[in-house]
Amino acid sequence: VRRGEFELIDHFFRDAGVARADVLVGIGDDGAVLRPPAGSDLVAVTDTLNEGVHFPAGCDARSVGHRALAVNLSDLAAMGAEPAWALLALTLPAYDESWLEAFTAGFAGLARTHGVALVGGDTTRGPLAVNVQALGFVPAGAGIRRGGAAAGDLLFVSGTPGEAAAGLAIELGEHQATAGAGGPAGAGDGAGAAVDVLRRRFLYPEPRLALGRALRGIASACIDVSDGLLGDLGKLAAASGCGAAVELEQLPISPALLRFAGRPGGERMVLTGGDDYELCFAAPPGRAADVAAAAARCGVPVTAIGALREGAGVELRRAGCPEAFRHGGFDHFAR
Ligand code: ADP
Ligand code: MG
After folding, report:
1. pLDDT tens, residue by residue, 248-272
2. 200: helix, coil or strand?
3. pLDDT of 68-101, one tens digit each?
4. What pTM, to 2 d.p., does this model score?
5. Is 310 in the pocket of ligand 1 (CB under 6 A)?
6. In the predicted model, what is the mean pLDDT of residues 227-244?
7. Is 99 left (phi over 0), alpha (psi -120 to 50) or beta?
8. 191-203 vs 255-272: helix crossing angle, rounded to 10
9. What is the atom index within ligand 1 of the atom nearest the CA of 120?
10. Which of 188, 184, 151 is nearest to 253 (CA)?
């Protein structure tokens, strides 16, 4: 089948999200007309995935569709927002029916899970790139920011960061090298299952929307971990005008990651691996029980990893002593 641009949009994107009553005009006009609930603030985010930069060339299109929306929903999660609408600007090198089928299935699956309507977009020809814009709401004034924390606040991270970076290494066929350097990975009982867990964490990240919402009024600051825990925590601390101390022994290293990378290697991946889309957040010590209750209600594991303090920069500590580590998040323009 070959479809023209308009037929393509109609066939693949008309029903790629849920139907919502607050979409007054959706796909098919020059613009979407959307009605946010009274008394709410609108939260707007956008993120692009470029082939060869954000996903390997030839990556499963279903994963590309899922991740293109997931990375945006993760930004909404970090703000404590409830997602509602998305726009999709898709640049395709050629018309490829089966690629579009799989891409749309990945996008639509996640959109349905979180009640997101696809309300518009753009479709052009060029090197494969996917830009998504997502819009959501928070009750007026309730958006969680990066800069709201204070010295003394505790630091938490959701889930098990580092796994997605391991999954990407596996996707890229680099895991032999890592296993050689890291030790126990690669062979033995359960290695295949661990590889599946890690690949899945890269290909199909789950944005922490329920947790983000549950943290409204509890977290003093929040950021989603897209470029590595240390780098993103550094941004939260800097925005809050604080330094941070992270206790290395408290870092959550998943069994799959331990098996893949060993102890020092796994720790390094937890600190610097990208693409996790977990939440890193701060809360006053008096709210620790509320954090635990919110996490339990959402069914998301949350780990206390340190605290904010006066000063600047992120210090790593082991058994109470500072430990040197060169770090930084992923930076597209770093030399
Ligand atoms: P215009 O030329 O007025 O910008 P287009 O012809 O590009 O509009 O798009 C027609 C309609 O299809 C618009 O409502 C637009 O938002 C929607 N649309 C185009 N591409 C996509 C896409 N990839 N996903 C969702 N909606 C799309
Ligand atoms: Mg127009």
Report:
1. 999 999 999 999 999 899 999 999 9
2. helix
3. 999 999 999 999 999 999 999 999 999 999 999 9
4. 0.93
5. no
6. 97
7. alpha
8. 40
9. 16
10. 184
